[in-house]
Structure formats: structure tokens, C-alpha cells
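Format notes (please read before filing issues)

Several people have asked whether sequences and C-alpha cells are stored in separate files. They are not. Every record keeps both together, in the order shown below: the sequence lines, then the C-alpha cell lines. Line labels are part of the format and must not be stripped during preprocessing.
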Amino acid sequence: MAHEKALVSPREFVEEEEPRGPSELQLALRDLMHRPMALFGLICVTIVVIWALFPWLFAPLDPLAQEMDRFLKPPGFVDPEGRVYFLGTDQQGRDILSRIIWGARISLIVGFVAVIVSGCIGVTLGLISGYFGGVIDAVISRIIDSMLSIPFILLAISIVAILGPSLRNVIIAISVRTWIVYARVIRGAVISAKENEYVVGAKAAGCGTPRILLVYLLPNVISSAIVIATLYLGRMIIIEATFSFLGVGVPPPTPTWGGMLADGREYLDTAWWIALFPGLVLMLTVLGVNLLGDWIRDALDPKLKHLTN
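Then the structure lines:
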């Protein structure tokens, strides 16, 4: 009965597709849900980022408004107009909570911009040094060695003292030194990656040097730069607070966490809240950035998971 067999057209024949597994992003998010410390870090960073983006929505009062009749009022103080000062006031009658929220903007601007600027410089020089080698590599390596021989704080404070305290100069002072971390790591990654078959094949196919650097090498080493950036963001925030604490950072009356700590050190016995709350927020922010950075590092390089578990 061969003539009774129905013929199945190619369009009617559909192969069963193999079930697709979860994507790398889904796996990373699933891992995040099972890591309470990383979740805690994400919550801390998210709150501070929202503060920095929309401080006027959360700050109850003007952070620069001064009234001497509100001199050193404790947390929970309510003025005659019914306004509540949840974290108290400082020596000039300014609301501590509002200044902390507005100070988040300065800390994150310095942190993110310094990380991006130093990262771009370091990744560029690392790519060039690792790919070309020879005299170019030797010159860049000697520059890195020279920068490493100068103490970072001394160099940064000298730059700010020469240029003057401002937001831009603080970013310059931080970026001029931290790029060497990116350059050294990227250089080593490029030296290893340029011997791979896809790079050798690109050279044989006649691809130009810029294309090889940007298309074949950069995507394969950029994850290392991202890991450094996430781990160094917290350090940038600490350095900015240090500069403000020493009086060489963003000048007053702009609210900064380091500046608030400097203001509160003279009132530790009588008005402990001036220094306590900015210091606590600074600690939680840096802790959150570091915890989130550990998770990002594991997500980008699963080989490191066994080192942190």
C-alpha cells in the first residue's frame, strides 16, 4: 500500500528545537538572588544613586540654609514651624539629613567620573603597550614604574594644592594616578590574547591595527577593566571624602560627606550626630559598592567563584 502513504512536505516537517538554557544574564541574576550580601550591596548602592540623581525629592530642607537658632539641635528636633530634623543640625543650623542626601551627588560624580577617565587612559595605554611591545612597551612600563614610586596621597594633594580645590581638580588628581592599575592588568591580558588564533587570523586576513585592537582584543580584555572599575569605585569615594576632610576637596558650602566629618570632629563630645551619620552613610556606601563589585567580578569571570565561596 505504498500509494496510500501520505507525503510529508518539507514545510510540514518541523524539527523539535532543543530547549534553550538560561542566558548568562539570567544565571548572574539567579546567582545574585542567592547571595544576600550582594543583594545588600545592591540595595545600598541603589539608594545612594537615587539620592544623587534626585536629591530634591528626598532632602526635606535646603542643605545650605543656615539659622543660628537651630544651633546643634539633636536628632528628632522639631522647630516652631513644625519641621522635623530627623538627624539633627550642625554648628550652623543646617539640616544633617539634607546635607547627606545632597552630598551623595558629589561622592558619586567624583567616583564614577574618576573611574571612567582613569579607565579610558589605562585601557588605551595597556592595549598599546601589550600589542606593540618593544620600545613602546618599555616606555609605558617605565612611566608606570615612575608613577608607582610616588605616594598616591602625596601626589594627589600636591596636584590639588597647585590647581586649587574644586570638583574638576579632585577628579584630575585621582585619575592621574589610578590609570596605572588598568594599564598593567590590560597589558598582561593583551600579551596573552594576541597570540590566540583569531588575532593571528585577523592579521593574516590583512586587518589593520586599529581594527585588531578595537574589534578583536578590546572585547576580550574589557571584562578585566570592568572588574577593576567596580572594585575601585569605593576607593574613589573614600579618596574624595579624604580630600574634603583635609580641606583640599570640593570647597564649602557644597555639602560633602568628608567635609561633614571634618565639621563634626570638633563636636564629638557635644554633638556626636554631626560626624556619626555622614560617616555611617559613607561606610555603608563603600561596603555596598565592594559587595556588589565582588558579585560583578564573579559574574564576569566564573573561574574566580571558588576563591570567594
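For reference, the curators noted about this record: Residues 209-246 form the longest helix (38 residues). The mean pLDDT is 84.
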